[in-house]
# Entry
Amino acid sequence: MPTPLRIGLVGYGFMGRAHSNAYRKVNNFFDLEYRPVLQAVCARDKEKAQAFADTWGYASVETDWKKLVARPDIDAVDICTPNNLHKEIALAAAAAGKMILCEKPLSMNTAEGEEMCQAVENAGVPNIVWYNYRRVPAVSLAKQLIDEGRLGRIFHYRAVFLQDWTISADLPQGGQALWRLDAAAAGSGVTGDLLAHCIDTALWLNGPIKSVTAMTETFIKERKHNLTGKVEKVGIDDACAFLGRFANGSLATFESTRYARGHKALYTLEINGEKASLAWDLHDLHRLSFFDYGDDSIVRGWRSIHVSDGDQPYMKHWWVPGLAIGYEHSFVHQVADFLDGLAKKKPAGPTFRDALETQKVCDAVLDSARSGEWRQVG
Ligand code: SOE
# Structure
């Protein structure tokens, strides 16, 4: 019988659902030494927290995260709150000896992230950050192909993450549903929310980014604030584009916006190497496009690999070859890897320390956008 790992979830928004679903499913599909138990969910509104607990099967409810963190019957704290609470909760959870699974981005900025790393490392508690796109099987296959040397020397890494949900000037900022538009709660706009995903994947696939030059724009300068009721300045970046240099000599181009009319969550990446190129698109997430210059010239061309077979990453755990899985499965994979890492004492990434590297790139990007100058990362 797997050992129970009692989860205390703080926050119950969209990510609270994605994580809870993963905890519930993981042992049905993966053979693991640990089994998550939905022990408690915490949110300020007791009725809503109870409704969430009833829907997802949490055994109890708390309204104060400090109480949840102090409970002896909680082994791991899952932080699903707005970004401005990550640090305080993580420091308290580490001091209480709890494992921590923290939503992305790790922190509001690098300084906070460094404190969080030190806290988990001093306490010796297992930790991970939910950069889930690494664990979409097609993206994991891209990692495998790169690590096998099939692309050879890499020249270009290109990523975009486009959305269109904040175009209306009537949309307020702040509060439960719209904290991502409030700089005090989110830290930054698309840089920390969307580009952070692209950066995490890029660092994982192609190694460190050394330097960046960026521009950002806030298209709607003022919005009503849900908490104060007043029209207030908007402090987040609505759009960001940056160029960068990777340590391996390849060039980076990244772009993100919430003002790309027609795009809901278009995360795409393309990598061009000496021997081959690959491309991936979140809207068609189970496919990996691959061009291999080594192919016989008369049949050479972009192939679209349907990543659904048992010898491709994670897929042997799911259905029969040819049947695709989706977005939510990337979270199941993350829990599976986290639990497997616990059992093998080989921590699954991205750990807090790994995610701090993404934070450093985000900070350098925002700093470059402010100054108009190139910035070294870190
Ligand atoms: C924002 O709309 C958002 O939900 C991000 O916060 C998530 O991290 C991203 O995966 C999808 O878009």
Observations:
- The chain has a mean pLDDT of 98.
- The pocket of alpha-L-sorbopyranose is lined by residues 163, 193, 197, 265 (CB under 6 Å).
- The chain has two domains: 3-132, 133-376.
